[in-house]
Predict the structure.
Amino acid sequence: MCEISVIIPVYNVEEYLSECLESISNQTFSDIEIICVDDGSTDSSPDILNSYKNKDSRFKIVTQKNQGLGKARNTGLKHAKGKYIYFIDSDDYLELNALEKLYKSACDNQSDIVLFKFQSVDDDKNIHKRKTEFRIDEEFDLNDFSNFTFTYKDVKRHVLNSAFSACLKLYKKDLIEKYPFPVNTTFEDILPHAQVMVNASKISFVNEHLYYYRSNPNSILNSTSNEMDMFNIVDMVEDYLIKVNKYKEFEDEFIFFKIAQILKYIITSRNEDYFIKAKDEFSKIKIKNKKSLKKYALKGYKRVLKSPSYIDYIINYYELKLNKLSKKNINNY
């Protein structure tokens, strides 16, 4: 028995894996087990895992065939014995005092979830700003969050329109195990995020950047990435809200969520079928409160509906980008 089970899905990440494992094994909070789920790696990742297991008894290695991030996290959760659960992606890393701070917040506040902030980092350790994170400090007039809890009702926008990553939360095990990650799909963080936020009786917050996120094209997420999965995930979230009689409560937030998430992948998908599906989904949306949408979402929504084809949408999209850039350059001259 331990206090925190750290679950690390691993897939072909030999270049970054040791840095991740070092950041966990050297945490100032040591009452942990470290469950590494090898999701069918074909590089030297299994050898690296075994080297850590041989020198640190807290490491446990579970091997499975490649089934994606959601399945790997669920597998790790089945083996976990800790009171709390923490997930970390194998190409990222933590501040060495992160688990100590999260655990203290959880215990002091008897919270079901502890949220915190992250920073993006490149291979040269340069920090990049992220627009999407838990800006809980902007919701409350507080400087000190050490003895403070809240529920989703205090931070409704963070349920569907914030950082979804499982890596930005410390969970009580008896909460997160009720809401397994969807499998055979991308964007598996989104549904469990909404579920635990809505069902947590107490949420606490550590107002620090404790997690370093690295964008890695070979990660376990990107190895199975499929933008079309977003439509399924949006439907799952809607079905869940309806099932628990909370759709009306979240209707404005859900419409913004649906538009924003679908818009995000129209350009990167490079897929006519994705655009056609997006247009069909947008045609079904009835926006009752335009003020609930950010301007970019409302404009993007209208642009999709007005565009007769994907090519027309792309041309219009980049024309607007160029016009904005030209105006910015003129204003800066």
